[in-house]
Design a protein that fits this description.
104 residues; alpha+beta; four-stranded antiparallel sheet; 12% helix; binds calcium ion; LECH-like protein; C-type_lectin-like; CTDL_fold; C-type_lectin-like/link_sf
């Protein structure tokens, strides 16, 4: 997660981003309170929620099912309404199980 925060800080410093938050691909839309990664459908084993989050119904919405990295909350996570807020996604690349290619 530090890698993703580093990317966000870099984008801000080069003036390429003024986003308030970024979608990280974590959702509890299927079972409330069970946060799963969208791409693998696996439960999150690590979370970094801002104090008081996930709030489920903050901001007047009763449907906060999408986790975001919230820039103004020191890059901690906040759940938001998936339809109400359209944040850009920021994702880590998946690892590869293949051996590195030997050159030479
Ligand atoms: Ca939720
Ligand atoms: Ca929230």
């Amino acid at each position: 997660m530090k890698y993703l925060v580093g990317i966000i800080i870099l984008l801000e410093r080069i003036g390429d981003s003024n986003e308030t938050a970024w979608w990280i691909g974590l959702t509890d839309e299927n079972v409330e309170g069970l946060w799963k990664w969208h791409d693998t459908d696996t439960l999150a084993t690590f979370t970094d929620w801002y104090p008081g989050e996930p709030s489920t119904n903050g901001g007047g919405s009763n449907n906060e099912d999408c986790a975001s990295i919230y820039v103004r909350e020191s890059f901690h996570w906040n759940d938001v309404d998936c339809q109400l807020y359209k944040y850009y996604p920021i994702c880590e690349l998946g690892g590869t199980e293949s051996s590195p290619e030997v050159v030479g």
